[in-house]
Amino acid sequence: ACVICGISFVSYSALEGTAANSHVSVGIMFCIFAQIFQASMYVYEEKIMSQYKVQALQLVGWEGLWGLGLATVMLSILYKLGLADTPAAIYQMQNSNVLVILLFLSVISVAFFCFSGANVTQRSSAVARSTIKISSTILIWMVELAMGWNTFSFVQLTGFVCVAFGTLVYNRIVTIPILKSEESMPVLNKS
User: Fold this and answer.
1) I need a surface site. Which of 40, 53, 160, 165 has the fewest CB within 10 A?
2) Are 87 and 95 in contact (CB under 8 A)?
3) Residue 103 in contact with residue 93, Cβ under 8 Å?
4) pLDDT for 98-130, tens place per residue?
């Protein structure tokens, strides 16, 4: 509940002052859909790795191939609909070595991130992976603030504090006596 409350605060802060701009709302809806899709993928990964003997690197490789295929199909469709300019993107890559290097580094970092996440899923659970991933969002927000790419908002800070606190409580790093389950309570001897 604390994590959902925090995400709501962060989403609300993105909508503040943009009542006339529906593109922000559409963007947030796409982000929510992406999070649902990603969570489903984590659960499916956990199912696959528990049923079959699959190495994390092999799983990430297959996901990457499927992702490349889906991205190619989506870019083709979006180009035909006039929503993406694929030839312009290819032109930019052909004429900018810096862009190609940055794209390569991005692919490597995403592959490493996915490999690490698949290892967490394999050794623990999809839920543990999701809660750990939340910390990367908070780190990205802090870097955005430090670089001047985002403006500070107390609503966002409140949201991220709620998300971080909820994650700590869920992972039992912080315990609240009222929320202790019966399993973790000591059993009293009846004599």
Assistant:
1) 53
2) no
3) yes
4) 999 999 999 999 899 889 888 888 888 877 787
